[in-house]
Amino acid sequence: MASCFRGGSGISSISSLPSPPHRTRLSVLPVKCLSSRQSRDSDSDSDLRTTPSPSSTSGFSPYGWCAGIGGVGFLETTYLSYLKLTNSDAFCPIGGASCGDVLNSDYAVVFGVPLPFIGMFAYGLVAVLGLLLARKSFPIGINESYGRLILLGSSTSMAAASAYFLYILSTNFSGATCSYCLTSALLSFSLFFISLKEFSVEEIQKVLGVQLCIASLVVAALSTSYSSIQPLSSSLAEANLPFFETEITTSSSPFALSLAKHLHAIGAKMYGAFWCSHCLEQKQMFGSKAVKQLNYVECFPDGYRKGTKIAKACSDAKIEGFPTWVINGQVLSGEQDLSDLAKASGFPEMSQPS
Length: 354
Fold this sequence. Notes:
Number of strands: 10
Oligomer: single chain
Shape: elongated
Distance between the termini: 151 Å
Low-confidence stretches: 1-58
Radius of gyration: 39 Å
């Protein structure tokens, strides 16, 4: 009778040895049997223990990307801030002159602060937060949860502002191309989606209301800042006018010449635009000689095209139309009779025509 036993070198089968009658010796080896499902579960657990997560193998976390993108945006806005401080023209590889018109327009300033300065702060903040979150190293009083929320709020405000600026670019600067504006918008949207991706659906639902409030506040603030920008007439909406000198064909009367000298002496100023027909008519009242005595301020000395920024002197004086006179602190809008200008300026009555 054959039997199995465990020897020093394995399990052997022996059939040649006779067995004592009615005595059978059987060696039982303890064997643990596993079902196929248990085997697969065991293999799966082993794989989970040995296979690293995607985030650990990528070598560059999402917050690292935020830090890198924020750094690129910081460099771009630093360059534009330098140009603003030095009053230099930007190098525009795409868009040419139209790019400079956008960057130098009234829309490049928010509540008196140049937009590149605000961009420097925003991108710098995002870059620092990205580094802290990637390294999991935070200052006292700020933990990872707060850091994630601040990053999401910052990127939300930047994306909302970029969307608003793209709307301004398409409506007020149709046909113009601004490579710096488009680059900044791309960076802002990328930061928003990367930071949002790190939140679960449940977390997004909790902060959705706050995010909508942030976006609404940004749009409202920008709209309030730009509400003071006076739109030009529709006839000039698509105009592209190079600057030209207007010719005065009338002769100056003695009264007009004396009044012009008086207005010049007291510092009175006439603000106008080369394309303004009413400005030309006002000059014709003075005549060719007298008009040279006036303190005339041209509000578009470099010509006009859609989006051109008004001259700083006119912007500071808050000029809303042409012509506009500023005499001893008094603002007179539109064409003025010479007699009205004489009264407003205190010109001696004996010198006025009867």
